[in-house]
Recover the amino acids of this structure.
């Protein structure tokens, strides 16, 4: 199971880190942070258990899959491990509520946790400390791949949350299965060749919700097959022809292989994962925070404005700044003008503001026409770390104007939320699927993860009666 040491230094470095990461090597602040990130993702998954697209997945797969080993979170259903990873990943990403590593452009929990937890059965010899180490191993890798690829990867039409997500999934599952570095190389190489996801899915298609689930499933396949001796692409990142980086980028000068292993084990990307407190794509959050800040110093409503101009990066313009058309709930949650209109008319942009019939809401559509999203070359020039920076100009009907600039939204790595805020969000989402006693037991299992005698305890507490 060896690999060609001379031509895959970055793949080997990642595999060595993943297989060798111990609980004791993880800084205390990272241990504390990962538990909050896990809790947030699980809350998103529990809310996502009863959405139209996840119900279709659950019923369709249950019809074709008679295996009942691995729980579908927040339900009484169980499926085979690969199908459970597919469904649970879709549930986490099911309503634009989950985490995001902004520079890596990845929803990390949605791809890592479903794959990793699908490896854990009643007899799996994994305790809470080992579970935490495996989760951190997964959370560390995908963001680095996204940073390596840069903003152009999503700009050319790949859904980075899906394409780079396979590597977080494979890494976390490989560490949970205790694969050595050689087999972890193959797990990454098996997962990488399954990488996929097209950004056109954002314009109203349910399948966008499934991208994270497919990445989790692909990463799980990588780890399970590598454990049993199946081989993958040993230089999956470095290969000049047909490698992940060379294939998913327009040219070799558009990606930076050094990002894959730079500071690995010293600086932790886990600390740069942000949480969402709006039920919409992360690119929209700085604008919504900016409008709230303006409202705090000058209360205003829809009738008070002439227009709102959002100055942002090219990625913001392309990703979320198009003229809204009612194409489906996914599109509504991604479109920035529609989300601004939602905030002004509804007072918030969370789950209750997005019923199925909101897509054609004439008042929101009309107000969205007063929101312009324009390119600011100076923001684009700042690079991917600032791709969500915006300057929002509110032009009032009386001829005055107020402006607000935001670089990072509430819940971001630079303004991270409190444990109380995160638990409150979790409870609001999870209460729809779990009774109070089960909910409390799950919060306890996550926030005291390192004390669990068996990781399976956490898996079991995700079941609904």
């Amino acid at each position: 199971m060896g690999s060609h040491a001379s031509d895959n230094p970055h793949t080997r470095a990642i595999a060595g880190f993943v297989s060798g990461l111990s609980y004791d090597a993880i800084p205390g602040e990272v241990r504390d942070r990962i538990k909050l990130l896990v809790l947030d993702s699980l809350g998103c998954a529990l809310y996502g258990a009863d959405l139209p697209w996840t119900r279709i997945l659950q019923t369709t797969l249950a019809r074709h899959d008679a295996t009942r080993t691995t729980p579908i979170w927040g339900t009484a259903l169980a499926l085979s491990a690969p199908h459970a990873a597919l469904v649970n990943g879709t549930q986490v990403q099911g309503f634009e509520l989950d985490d995001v590593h902004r520079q890596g452009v990845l929803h990390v929990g949605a791809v890592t946790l479903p794959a990793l937890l699908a490896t854990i059965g009643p007899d799996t010899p994994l305790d809470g400390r080992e579970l935490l180490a495996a989760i951190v191993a997964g959370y560390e890798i995908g963001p680095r791949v996204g940073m390596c690829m840069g903003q152009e990867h999503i700009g050319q039409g790949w859904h980075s949350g899906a394409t780079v997500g396979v590597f977080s999934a494979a890494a976390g599952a490989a560490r949970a299965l205790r694969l050595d570095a050689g087999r972890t190389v193959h797990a990454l190489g098996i997962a990488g060749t399954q990488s996929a996801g097209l950004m056109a899915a954002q314009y109203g298609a349910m399948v966008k919700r499934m991208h994270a689930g497919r990445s989790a499933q692909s990463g799980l396949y990588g780890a399970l097959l590598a454990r049993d001796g199946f081989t993958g692409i040993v230089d999956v990142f470095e290969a000049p022809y047909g490698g992940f980086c060379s294939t998913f980028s327009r040219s070799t000068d558009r990606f930076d292989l050094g990002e894959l292993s730079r500071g690995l084990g010293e600086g932790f990307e886990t600390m740069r994962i942000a949480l969402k407190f709006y039920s919409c794509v992360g690119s929209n959050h700085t604008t919504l925070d900016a409008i709230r800040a303006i409202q705090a110093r000058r209360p205003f409503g829809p009738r008070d404005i002439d227009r709102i101009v959002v100055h942002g990066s090219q990625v913001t313009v392309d990703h979320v700044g198009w003229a809204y058309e009612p194409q489906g709930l996914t599109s509504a949650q991604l479109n920035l003008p529609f989300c601004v209109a939602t905030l002004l008319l509804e007072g918030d942009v969370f789950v209750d503001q997005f019923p199925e019939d909101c897509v054609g809401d004439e008042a929101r559509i009309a107000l969205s026409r007063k929101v312009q999203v324009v390119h600011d070359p100076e923001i684009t020039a700042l690079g991917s770390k600032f791709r969500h920076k915006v300057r929002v100009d509110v032009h009032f009907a009386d001829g005055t104007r107020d402006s607000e600039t935001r670089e990072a939204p509430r819940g971001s790595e630079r303004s991270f939320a409190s444990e109380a805020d995160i638990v409150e969000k979790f409870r609001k989402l999870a209460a729809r699927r779990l009774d109070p006693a089960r909910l409390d037991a799950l919060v306890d299992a996550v926030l005291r993860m390192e004390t669990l005698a068996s990781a399976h305890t956490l898996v079991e507490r995700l079941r609904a009666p």
